[in-house]
């Protein structure tokens, strides 16, 4: 486990424990896209244009997943281990699961490049998705059930936000950030409690989050437009709690 410690090592006070809602929002977006991608790849009428667009989208999503895992491995797990040494078994499992996902992730990326370059068929990409889907979804559930519980015990919410900024946000350009926010907001039913937990002031709900969610469905911006896949929602907020 990489020994990078970007945060002080004081345990979180009970009244200010981290709420890693953005992590579950990311996980929900991944689950949503797995379902959507499977629907498109299984469509015998999938056009060449949409297939290529899907390939580009898959490459981008896999890059986000790799960036996400690197942030956890280098900047989160070591801090949690310092705070809670008894969590080593779970944290080692998190890192091992990341490593086990590398091969299937690379295979799906290769298939996605093939879709763009007309070197792979939808069946090729579907086979690669089959290899990744089971281990990925199992990992997301394991992380939510055990890994995020350690986050809540060990970190304050301010420390969690500092980690997110250092590990992920600081590596984005403004254009990267807009694209990521549009992607993660797609299909989310924004209840007031979700708006609060996302860190957006209530007054900005309508001018910011609603347009982001709508823009994710614009034909020029999405691979899903006009297909049943576009109706697959994000399950963000359905099970997670602070």
Automatic annotation (TrEMBL):
<dbReference type="InterPro" id="IPR012312">
    <property type="entry name" value="Hemerythrin-like"/>
</dbReference>
<feature type="domain" description="Hemerythrin-like">
    <location>
        <begin position="23"/>
        <end position="146"/>
    </location>
</feature>
<protein>
    <recommendedName>
        <fullName>Hemerythrin-like domain-containing protein</fullName>
    </recommendedName>
</protein>
<dbReference type="Pfam" id="PF01814">
    <property type="entry name" value="Hemerythrin"/>
</dbReference>
């Amino acid at each position: 486990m990489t020994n990078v410690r970007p945060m002080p090592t004081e345990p979180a006070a009970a009244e200010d424990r981290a709420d890693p809602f953005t992590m579950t929002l990311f996980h929900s977006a991944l689950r949503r896209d797995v379902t959507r991608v499977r629907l498109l790849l299984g469509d015998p009428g999938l056009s060449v244009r949409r297939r290529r667009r899907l390939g580009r989208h898959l490459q981008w999503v896999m890059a986000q997943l790799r960036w996400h895992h690197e942030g956890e491995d280098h900047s989160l797990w070591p801090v949690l281990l310092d705070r809670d040494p008894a969590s080593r078994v779970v944290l080692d499992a998190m890192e091992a699961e990341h490593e086990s996902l590398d091969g299937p992730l690379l295979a799906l990326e290769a298939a996605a490049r093939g879709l763009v370059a007309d070197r792979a068929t939808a069946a090729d990409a579907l086979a690669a998705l089959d290899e990744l889907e089971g281990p990925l979804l199992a990992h997301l559930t394991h992380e939510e059930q055990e890994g995020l519980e350690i986050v809540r015990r060990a970190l304050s919410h301010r420390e969690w936000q500092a980690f997110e900024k250092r590990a992920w946000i600081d590596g984005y350009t403004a254009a990267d950030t807009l694209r990521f926010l549009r992607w993660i907001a797609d299909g989310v039913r924004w209840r007031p409690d979700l708006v609060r937990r996302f860190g957006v002031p209530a007054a900005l709900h309508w001018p910011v989050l609603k347009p982001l969610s709508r823009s994710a469905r614009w034909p020029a911006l999405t691979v899903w437009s006009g297909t049943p896949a576009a109706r697959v929602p994000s399950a963000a907020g359905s099970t997670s709690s602070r």
